[in-house]
């Protein structure tokens, strides 16, 4: 075969990301040819609605409504799956692998649900799956972990992996807007779906964390097993009070080697102002990775959007054409290999300091009851502020804002349960957030 024979690619889905991919391939064909060593030609693109006007002009006959057709086309060697969804996406990827195609995808949901099956199938058939765009969009975190950091044992990884949540929290922080208004603004500006539940409840970040953990720690994890707390209970008060204490709140997806095994969680946490993660604003993503050899590396960039995500997809496409994806995939993609699997720590055993806001009756002796309930469970107070009427002020009540010394989540939860039983504590208010050390 002539070295300049185009590589024929099939793409399933040409929405936000697919349009960006087509645009790069069409408008920057020379650059891509140089980098790939051969032209990359979109031979077929499957969409749902073939009658829709597209933002990128493709030659007549390229767009079709039939994904099966491109999956079976013997001339196509790479299928780029950009349709989203889980069940149909799984079927398409498995079928494309069976038909001898390599896969490039941005679909984190299908990998988080069926990654093991897909990866096993690809390994059996000698094919590759490249998925850098599935985690943190334009940030090349998957290829960095899979290629550049392989001399290391990753010891911890903390990420802001959901730009929607970071936008909402930043909005609440900067404008003092309440949660509902910040969500509405995120929707208006295209940063949040009409139904943002998978974002705000931490599920999306947990899916991305699960994908990273399988690579970074050579271990298997189902994303549903990751302890997650969403941002929907956050109030502007927390963001202001955290700031007074020297922190910002961020939805942090974290994995770290602890004494009791691999600690995994997605939760809003206090992050010290001035640390790189605390300074991540708006719809940006960031990941701090600690390797035993390299130390700490920090990645920051756009985790979604047309061009950043397409940048990652096309890089994967080029890597697949030149053979890099196959090498990386063979050496790091053993999701179903349990040999190195690490034990997971029970979330009750994970240790951190806690920020705690408790709304209590403004009476003498109340403080002693609170300190007593905490102390009986082994939680000790490091800092305490009393705020009478700033937030949610209810006559006769005041807010106690605490920073605790380090304790286990289990001890803090037991203390919280005991606090809620005290007559002096308002049952429907208060929040406890772990602090990122
Ligand atoms: N958007 C981002 O910033 C971003 C970032 C990272 C990862 N991702 C991931 O990338 C993937 C694509 O996201 P997106 O935002 O580009 O989605 P999108 O804008 O909703 O586009 C989906 C595409 O799939 C097509 N499609 C739907 N059902 C189909 C079917 N049965 N057969 C063939 N085509 C079908 C749609 O066709 P029509 O055009 O005809 O409707 C559309 O072109 C998702 O897995 C997403 O999670 C997205």
Unreliable spans are none
The percent range for helix content is 25-40%
Structural class: alpha/beta
**Rg from C-alpha positions?**
24 Å
Kindly report the average pLDDT value: 93
What name does CATH use for the topology of the largest domain? Dihydrodipicolinate Reductase, domain 2
The side-by-side strand order for the widest beta sheet comes to 3-2-1-4-5-6
Instruction: Please report the number of helical segments.
Output: 15
CATH class of the largest domain: Alpha Beta
How would you characterize the overall build of this protein?
With 437 residues, this protein is an alpha/beta fold. It folds into three domains: 7-138 and 309-336, NAD(P)-binding Rossmann-like Domain (Rossmann fold, 3-Layer(aba) Sandwich); 141-302, Dihydrodipicolinate Reductase, domain 2; 349-434, ACT domain (Alpha-Beta Plaits), CATH 3.30.70. The protein is built from 15 helices and 18 strands. The chain has helices at residues 16-27, 29-36, 67-72, 87-98, 108-125, 141-148, 163-175, 179-188, 197-200, 203-216, 236-244, 306-322, 324-332, 366-376, 409-421, and strands spanning 7-12, 40-46, 63-64, 78-81, 102-105, 129-130, 154-160, 227-228, 247-258, 261-272, 284-291, 295-302, 351-352, 354-361, 381-387, 397-404, 407-408, 431-434. Strands 3-2-1-4-5-6 form a six-stranded parallel beta sheet, sandwiched between helices. Bound molecules: NADP nicotinamide-adenine-dinucleotide phosphate (NAP). NADP nicotinamide-adenine-dinucleotide phosphate (NAP) binds at residues 12-18, 46-49, 52, 67, 82-84, 88, 106-108, 133, 137, 304-305, 309.
């Amino acid at each position: 075969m002539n070295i300049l024979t185009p590589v024929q690619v099939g793409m399933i889905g040409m929405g936000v990301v697919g349009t960006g991919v087509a645009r790069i391939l069409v408008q920057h064909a020379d650059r891509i040819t140089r980098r790939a060593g051969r032209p990359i030609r979109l031979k077929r693109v499957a969409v749902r609605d073939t009658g829709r006007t597209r933002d990128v002009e493709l030659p007549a006959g390229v767009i079709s409504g039939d994904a099966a057709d491109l999956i079976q086309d013997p001339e196509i060697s790479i299928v780029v799956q950009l349709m989203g969804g889980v069940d149909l996406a799984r079927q398409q990827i498995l079928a494309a692998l069976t038909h001898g195609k390599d896969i490039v995808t941005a679909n984190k949901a299908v990998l988080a649900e069926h990654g093991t099956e897909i990866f096993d199938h690809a390994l059996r058939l000698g094919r590759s799956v490249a998925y850098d765009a599935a985690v943190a969009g334009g940030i090349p975190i998957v290829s960095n972990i899979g290629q550049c950091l392989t001399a290391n044992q990753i010891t911890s990884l903390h990420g802001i992996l959901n730009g929607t949540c970071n936008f909402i929290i930043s909005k609440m922080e900067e404008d003092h807007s309440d949660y509902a208004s910040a969500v509405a603004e995120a929707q208006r500006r295209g940063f949040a779906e009409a139904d943002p539940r998978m974002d705000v409840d931490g599920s999306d970040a947990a899916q991305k964390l699960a994908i990273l953990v399988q690579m970074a720690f050579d271990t298997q994890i189902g994303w549903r097993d990751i302890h997650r707390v969403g941002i929907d209970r956050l109030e502007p008060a927390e963001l202001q009070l955290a700031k007074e204490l020297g922190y910002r709140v961020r939805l942090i997806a974290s994995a770290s080697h602890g004494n009791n095994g691999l600690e995994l969680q997605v939760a809003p946490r206090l992050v010290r102002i001035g640390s790189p993660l605390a300074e991540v604003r708006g719809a940006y993503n960031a990941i701090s990775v600690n390797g035993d050899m390299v130390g700490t590396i920090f990645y920051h960039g756009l985790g979604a959007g047309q061009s950043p995500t397409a940048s990652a997809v096309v890089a994967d496409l080029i890597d697949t054409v030149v053979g890099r994806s196959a090498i990386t995939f063979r050496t790091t993609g053993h999701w179903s290999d349990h040999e190195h699997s690490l034990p997971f720590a029970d979330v009750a055993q994970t240790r951190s300091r806690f920020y705690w806001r408790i709304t209590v009756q403004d009476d003498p002796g109340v403080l002693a009851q609170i300190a007593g309930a905490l102390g009986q469970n082994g939680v000790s107070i490091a800092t305490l502020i009393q705020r009478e009427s700033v937030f949610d002020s209810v006559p006769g009540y005041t807010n106690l804002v605490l920073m605790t010394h380090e304790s286990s989540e289990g001890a803090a939860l037991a203390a919280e349960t005991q606090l809620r039983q005290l007559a002096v504590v308002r049952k429907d208010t208060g929040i406890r957030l772990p602090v990122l050390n």
